[in-house]
Amino acid sequence: MVISLIISVAIISLISVFLALLMVIADATIGNYGIVTVNVNDGTKEFQVKGGMPLLSTLTAQGVFIPSACGGRGSCGLCKVQVISGVGDYLPTELPFIPPEERAQNIRLSCQIKVKQDMAIQIPEELFNVKEYQTTVERIRDLTHDIKEVTLRLPPGETITPKAGQYVQFVVPEYADLDESVYRAYSVASPPDDNTRVELEIRLVPNGICTTYVHTILKEGDEVTINGPYGDFYVRETERPMICIAGGSGMAPIKAILMDMKNKGSKRKAIYFFGARTKRDLFLLDEMYALEKELENFTFVPALSEPTEEDKWEGEVGLITDVVRRLSGDAANSEAYLCGSPGMIDACIAVLGELHMPEEHIYYDKF
Amino acid sequence: MPSQVGAFAVFFASIFTSNILLTNYLGMCSFLAVSKEMKTSVGLGAAVTFVLALTTPLNWLVYQYLLIPFNLEYLRFIVFIIVIAAFVQLTEMTLERYSEPLYQALGIFLPLITVNCAILGASLFMVIREYTFITSLLFGIGSGIGWFLAIVAMSGIRTKLRTAKIPPALEGPGITLIIAGFMAMAFMGFSGMIAVS
User: Fold this and answer.
1) In the A/B pair of chains, how many CB contacts fall below 8 A?
2) Confidence of residue B192 (pLDDT cuts 50, 70, 90)
3) Number of structural domains chain B divides into
4) Whole-number pLDDT of residue A310
5) CA A81 – CA A111 distance, rounded (Å)
6) Is B105 part of a structural domain of the chain?
7) Is A74 or A346 the better-scoring residue by pLDDT?
8) Which of A67, A309, A340, B101 could serve as A250's disulfide partner, Cβ 3.0–4.6 Å?
9) CATH number for the A35-127 domain, one of 3.30.70.2750, 3.40.109.10, 3.10.490.10, 3.10.20.30?
């Protein structure tokens, strides 16, 4: 009995040891790509790494953060990087995310391709600015019945420098049924000068992974990991009059832009259309009216699409696009900053087109 | 009794009448997940065929020459699965290093099928049915081809489904499972031709 037990343990150990040994040898020979060099942006950054790992995790280990929402599983298609040399053909797992015009530039999904030889890549300059921060929740307050403002404080000594309008990624830890952490992107609502804090405005989306977490579990004093800043939605330094349009929590980046103008003493002409359904969906009105006084050429236009009787609303009424059309006049020389749902943004782009605004002057952030 | 059945009869039966996917419902998860696109289905089907064709005889050798002599048949589950895992891992590493085109076509699917129950299932059936080495080899290849046919047929149907009106409650895996059921019935139509236990 004892002997047969020993034999069976011995045999199974033998098989396992043999296979494990085989794997170790294979890893050291077949899987060993040696030390390779990754060259970022024509030598702006260059590092020596152990080959064989996916490009995304290789870059993350070197402190270069590429935006990614799924954490390297090849399902979000965000971690695109232009590869100049050192990579093979497209993998079937990449193809669904890369349209033909990007294929021509050799844009790749960095989580899918592996660094097996010296590689040269090109990434947007501002990604060098991206860092990860372990923040603490300083304050959570209700802006409306379904939007919360979350203020995150950076660790002492660290600063973040987003351009007004950019976003950060919020890392949602494992909770309830969520068995791995995920990222969600939120615009920064605080102005760039306030570089030790990040303010986010988060609307509760039914069944939303991150929004449910923020609205039901997160409390003041908790730790939150964020990384950023990202995004090409930020204010352009021109003299053109600005038309800002936002709906709901689309307020966040516009608020950052306006606060930034205030801090810089800007005299630029600006009008801000803020759309909501009823009065209880409006928020930060006092702050906006205060900005109207502090900024020389700024007008704030809140509008309700379905005001109720008890709202006693005397401001603008109608869909935000109708209000924009009514009040803007010719917009050929203006610039527009839009933030809201895809439907709202597409409708606004159409209206701005009718008002003769060139498309390249329209900047937007769809969510 | 089973070993009396000719090796070629086993080969054809495992493709059609005893199709490992449609009669045993093994390898369902990747069948449902990957059958959305024809190209990936072909890749995965080929990878499954390749792994089945090699691990089934490999496990036959391990079983006959290592487990039976020491009376360790009851350890076959765990032994088979680690042999399969190691084999798949080695194949993937080799392909990735030495053959870019093969890695493109098959390699990236290999990690997906280490845990595919059809692979382990084939090795276990081979033991239960007391196949010889040659029969095991043909059974492995046949099961792979059968799995390949089933997933390619399914992806063809799912391509057509994209424009079909499907009740919301059945979208995705729901309708796929129903179709798999119909396909299983169709494949059973072959059973008048050859039967194998």
Assistant:
1) 54
2) low
3) 1
4) 85
5) 10
6) yes
7) A346
8) A340
9) 3.10.20.30
Take residue A325 and report the two structure tokens written for it.
């059309």
A132–chain B Cβ distance below 8 A for any pair = no
Using a CB–CB cutoff of 8 Å, tell me whether A75 touches chain B. no
Q: Where are the alpha helices (DSSP H) in chain A?
A: 2-29, 55-61, 100-104, 209-216, 251-264, 285-294, 320-328, 342-354
CA angle A145, A367, A204 (to 5 degrees): 25
A124 to chain B, minimum CA–CA distance in Å? 28
- Evaluate whether residue B197 is within a structural domain: no
Instruction: Say what the ipTM of the complex is.
Output: 0.74
Residue B108 lies in a domain: yes
* CB contact at 8 A, A292 and A284: no
Q: Which domain holds residue B91?
A: 2-192
Please give the Cα distance from B93 to B108 (Å, whole number). 10
Cβ contact A30–B39 (<8 Å):
no
Domain A130-230 = CATH 2.30.30.240: no
Q: For the segment B90-136, what is each residue's pLDDT rounded down to a tens digit?
A: 888 888 888 777 787 777 678 777 778 899 999 999 999 999 999 99
Handedness of CA B162, B166, B172, B174 (dihedral sign): negative
Selected residue of B96, B103, B114 to mutate for chain A interface (largest A Cβ count, 10 A) = B96
User: Is some CB atom of chain A closer than 8 A to the CB atom of B99?
Assistant: no
Which tokens in the block code for residue A257?
Answer: 């832009």
Q: B82 and A11: CB-CB below 8 Å? A: no
The angle at the Cα of A169, spanning A167 to A173, to the nearest 5 degrees, equals 155
Is A89 an 8 Å CB contact of chain B? yes
CB contact under 8 A, A30 and B43: no
A88 CA to chain B: closest CA distance, Å?
Answer: 7
Residue A45's pLDDT is what? 85
Check if A6 contacts B (Cβ < 8 Å).
no
Mean pLDDT (chain A) is 88
Could you give the CA distance from residue B61 to residue B140 in angstroms, rounded to a whole number?
A: 14
Closest CA of chain B from A144, distance in Å: 33
pLDDT attached to residue B196: 57
Q: Is A1 on the interface with B (CB under 8 A)?
A: no
Q: Could you report the per-residue pLDDT of A128-161, keeping only the tens digit for each?
A: 888 889 999 999 999 999 999 999 999 998 889 8
CB-based contact, B102 to chain A, within 8 Å: no
Write the CATH number of the domain with boundaries A242-366: 3.40.50.80
Distance CA B180, CA B177 (A): 5
Chain centroid to Cα B197, Å, comes to: 17
> From B88, which residue of chain A is nearest by alpha-carbon distance?
A23
